[in-house]
Amino acid sequence: MKRSHINYAVDKAHAIAETFRVSLPDFAYFTVDAWRQQDQTRWREVLDLQLGWDITDFGRGDFAQTGLTLLTLRNGLMGSVNYPKPYAEKMLQIQQDQQTPWHFHRHKMEDIVNRGGGDLCMQLAWATSDDGYDARRIVEVSVDGQWRTVDAGETLVLKPGQGVCLPPRLYHRFWAEKAFVLGWEISMVNDDLHDNHFLEPGGRFPVIEEDEPVKWLLCSEYSRL
Ligand SMILES: [Fe+2]
């Protein structure tokens, strides 16, 4: 993914948040230069837990088709005395027709909520014991506290305001239809390095081509400070 596309994606994410009247914490507005002017010892929690912007094309190289804009707002660290917080919160921005590919989480339970915009469409399927895709097993999930039953791979449409609870080992794939979707994730502690399993090769993070200077550091890049 080109750096220019990442810089643009964060600029756009700020504008979209403003359109939805969602106010973000200070660190969401720190350019790399602003970060360098901060007393970073005061921001250790943000830096250590990698709160902040996470723009990804899931290693596929086509952000418009397969990609996601995330802002990690809260997180903890499993087994850590310093960061015992057992929950995480993320803002998700999903462009129209942009998909997040099939994956499940080994430990994390998460709620994915459509906070507004178009329809958030989601396909679900259980993982088999060897991490494959179970095409036969029926899926029962809670949408805002109401049980819904879908077949493996059937599309569940989450309208604005609706959210689904995804237990560990439930494969999910989602995309926005009709318009951009402002999504929200409320979950157990998030560990993107170890907890994600993708059905197809690609990965969680982009390979970055540095075609222009960094404006916004991604949360995985704080070691550059
Ligand atoms: Fe997920």
Automatic annotation (TrEMBL):
Family: Belongs to the D-lyxose ketol-isomerase family.
Catalytic activity entry: D-lyxose = D-xylulose
Keyword Cytoplasm attached: no
Organism: Citrobacter arsenatis
Single GO molecular function: D-lyxose ketol-isomerase activity
Protein name: D-lyxose ketol-isomerase
Record key words, sorted: Carbohydrate metabolism, Isomerase, Manganese, Metal-binding
InterPro entries: D-lyxose_isomer, EcSI_cupin, RmlC-like_jellyroll, RmlC_Cupin_sf
Cofactor or coenzyme needed: Mn(2+)
CDD domains: cupin_EcSI
Keyword check for Lipid metabolism: no
The protein's Enzyme Commission number: 5.3.1.15
Lineage: Bacteria, Pseudomonadati, Pseudomonadota, Gammaproteobacteria, Enterobacterales
